[in-house]
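Hey, I'm writing a tutorial for new members on how sequence and structure tokens pair up, and I'd like a real worked example in the thread rather than a made-up one. If someone can provide the structure for the chain below, I'll link this post from the tutorial.
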Amino acid sequence: MALDRETAMQVAAVLSKGLPYIQRFTGKTVVIKYGGNAMENEDLQRSFARDMVLMKLVGINPIVVHGGGPQIGELLERLNIKSHFINGMRVTDSETMDVVEMVLGGQVNKQIVSLINQQGGTAVGLTGKDGNLIRARKLEVKNHADELARPEIIDIGHVGEVQEVNVEMIDMLTRSNVIPVIAPIGVGEDGASYNINADLVAGKVAEALKAEKLILLTNVSGLKSKDGEVLTGLTAQEVNDLIEDGTIHGGMLPKIRCALNAVESGVRTSHIIDGRVAHATLLEIFTDEGVGTLISRH
């Protein structure tokens, strides 16, 4: 569709304003955790895929780590497999783990790869089991109830945490002009599969790669103050203070801790951004305004 002269000039101005950011981030690695509304809305899916392709074309290396909790829950329900949660984590027996691998490593992963490829990119889908990409260990959940003399260890099955990330494998893919799309499934020393929280995987991948940015797409506009205002820029110390005074609490706490750990472990900045906004990733990287909360070490 042809643009009128005024619209064309506006487009040119926007592209020109993006130049300093492109120059700054060319050759840098950005790890993006993809999930929530951005994954479930077709228009947002397309805008996300276009963002990844554009980033790669201007010399940035995007690494995508995706979730898939709702899709897992839906298939478990259709198979009449009941789900139980402890501390917000799905108890994952062998039967449930089979479904997790089917959904994350198959259905969801391949859909994201296909979306990026349709927009002209070259994406490759992986789970943490491929090439020992993510070495995992079983996650220990402890019950610290007052009536117990010592913490009780609760077995929640095939739920893990990241032990090690195979950086060489990711580097090989990015050097080959490929966008890696990673499902958060790790492999233990005994070859067992482990379901790992996607935010945690994204954070550990960013830490291992010493990424420029960790971007967590969410269904909220960012981290908010007690007055409901979005906090756009915070240091690690300010985030710790907000945790201490109870401003950050509940379901947002694990996500914020993930972002905080990343910047304290060498990632330059972490971002909690609103995945309900079209092209949220580009807005956060290529504009001063952004669409969420930026966390930096200093």
